[in-house]
Amino acid sequence: MRKNSIKNTRINGEVQKELAGIIRNEVKDPRVGMLTSVTRVEVAPDLKTCKAYISTMDKEHTVEETVAALKNAEGFIRRQLAKTVNLRQTPQITFIADHSIEYGVHMNKLISDAMENISPDEPEEAEGTDEE
């Protein structure tokens, strides 16, 4: 099975959806905030490993704290994933901090600030209307 096959894409989507549900509803660690999301999942073609990219917009906890808490709960999360997703093997999950949402918000703010500082162009007078 190729990495970008339709089957692999469907498996990635299903695992992402189930991981998000497990993290939101079943993980009771206080370091995992309510605004934690699974931004992307990459399951290996042999179904043995899985990379889960985690992002959070929670002000109380950093992404690194959240990833550390999820690594501690990996066995529980993997067991719950095995119950909900019907795969030959339940992949070993590696949680990775994803800063892309924070980066996007930061870039959007910079663009907005730059647009506010630009004054609207004043209409220029038509050239060639000067009579001598």
Q: Which structural class fits the helix and strand makeup?
A: alpha+beta
- Low-confidence spans: pLDDT under 50, at least 5 residues? none
Strand order across the largest sheet: 1-2-3
Shape summary: globular
Number of strands: 3
Share of helical residues: 40-55%
Would you state the CATH class? Alpha Beta
Which sequence of SSEs, written as H and E, runs from N to C? HEEHHEH
Q: Judging by the overall fold, what is the CATH architecture?
A: 2-Layer Sandwich
CATH topology: GMP Synthetase, Chain A, domain 3
The rounded Rg comes to: 23 Å
Number of structural domains: 1
CATH homologous superfamily placement: K homology (KH) domain
Compute the average pLDDT. 86
* Helical segment count: 4
Main sheet specs: 3 strands, mixed
Q: Approximately what portion of the residues adopt beta-strand conformation?
A: 15-25%
Termini separation (Å)? 79 Å
Please give the structural blueprint.
Blueprint: H1 6-25, E1 36-43, E2 49-56, H2 63-72, H3 74-84, E3 92-97, H4 100-117
Helix pairs in contact: 1-3
Describe this structure in words.
- It is a single chain.
- A hairpin with a 5-residue loop joins strand 1 and strand 2 (49-56).
- The radius of gyration is 23 Å and the shape is globular.
- It is an alpha+beta fold.
- Helix content is 45%, strand content 17%.
- Strands 1-2-3 form a three-stranded mixed β-sheet, sandwiched between helices.
- The longest helix is centred in the N-terminal third of the chain and has 20 residues, at 6-25.
- Helix 1 (6-25) crosses helix 3 (74-84).
- The protein contains four helices and three strands, in the order H-E-E-H-H-E-H.
- The model has no long low-confidence stretch (mean pLDDT 86).
- The protein has a single domain, classed as GMP Synthetase, Chain A, domain 3 (2-Layer Sandwich).
